[in-house]
Amino acid sequence: MRLGERAVLAGKRREAGKDELFGFGRGKHGPAKLNGDAAEGTEEMNIRLCLPAASVPLSGIMSPSIRDPFARPLRDLRISVTDRCNFRCPYCMPKEVFGAGYAFLRDPQLMTPVEIKRIVRAFLTLGVEKVCLTAGEPLLRADVPHLVRTLKMDLGLPDVALTTNGWLLEKLAPALRAAGLDRINVSVDSLDDGTAGRMNGLGFSVTRVLRGIDAAAALGLPVKINCVVQRGVNDHELIALCEYFRARGHTLRFIEFMDVGNTNHWSSDRVVPAREIVERIGSVWPLEAAGPAYRGEVAARYKYRDGRGEIGLISSVTEPFCRDCHRARLSADGRLYTCLFASLGWDLLGCLRAGADDAALARYLSRVCSGRLDRYSDERAELLAAGEGRAKV
Ligand code: SAM
Ligand code: SF4
Ligand code: SF4
Predict the structure, then answer these.
(1) What would the pLDDT profile of 136-156 be if each residue is shown by its tens digit?
(2) Which 8-state DSSP code applies to residue 271?
(3) Which run of H or of E encompasses 130?
(4) Which neighbouring-strand residues pair with 251?
(5) Is the CB of residue 60 less than 8 Å from the CB of residue 366?
(6) For 86, how many CA atoms within 13 A lie in the half-sphere containing its CB?
(7) Which of 81, 85, 98, 340 to mutate to test the pocket of ligand 2 (most atoms within 8 A of CB)?
(8) N or C: at which end does the chain have fewer Cβ atoms within 10 angstroms?
(9) 21 within ligand 3 shell (Cβ under 6 A)
């Protein structure tokens, strides 16, 4: 890609506001941006709008292990089930932006469970094995246990996970477990109510979240903890967090503060590099690198040498991992994003609602996913290495 083109792309991406890993993305959930930046009348636009087959040469072939031009398979689908959240973490949905006047999606714009099931079934034909329900806050949606049951029981998905801020977990853990949920990720940035309250933007205590984690674990749900680390905000708690969660047998994954959107006051000074986190924890409890548990695992694993558990490091800023990226994201309004930083989505829900049958949907997906060229974080790292400013591409 030429630099000029990259700049155009950069501008588009800056509008987006996406996470690399878990499933937020206000831009893509926001008021419909129906592919406004695709050139009018191009084949690309037709595909994005899912025009009838006559105008879309659906030459893709369904394959149990589709590969993109970088030979990356697609294994992992993040489904955002709502764009709403009951927290206002300043690094994700700052309250000055996501306030009373913010236009969240309305119900008819959201995918129904039946629509989600049809879309996921199409993804299964491409080789997707894991689905993670996320959002906004997925537990705000009342039918999430039903959705989990559908994915597990009706579609037989081997791995269904959910990522939550934990506020509603104590109450909902039994229903999620009964529905067949395989794993849960809970976000905990601090064990201190003052810091936690600042980091969730609304002053909520972490105690209730911790009770939710205990409730899920007591039901036998494997729990992982996600912690976004920001220098000068919560990095003084690294050791306390490790101590607390390893005593309870939960893997803690530290996430580098990412430059999502334009509104989260990102600055490289606030990023604590994964390498530094490992050094700081390792100086208290020696660590050793462990290989990935499976190909394409997002977190780099480190085991405590004393044998009491492990931590994970998600280093999307300082050590990007696009070359092994196996994931895609579906927004709450049914758009497929082949990179979690992409601002253009492929309107799968529009296809369904326009009458596409399962075979047409699968061919469409196959075509989109086999052409996937995204490598946002790698490009950002290359720009940084070239000394191009703060390199938010
Ligand atoms: N609301 C749920 C939660 O907080 O777990 C699910 C969605 S949230 C967007 C998913 C994850 O993305 C959380 O672990 C959150 O901490 C992380 N995240 C959000 N903004 C981030 C940022 N700017 N940098 C790094 N991680 C971020
Ligand atoms: Fe974003 Fe925080 Fe809400 Fe999760 S809990 S979606 S990180 S604002
Ligand atoms: Fe993240 Fe890179 Fe995958 Fe995009 S291609 S989602 S930036 S790892």
Answers:
(1) 999 999 999 999 999 999 999
(2) B
(3) strand 130-134
(4) 224
(5) yes
(6) 13
(7) 85
(8) N
(9) no
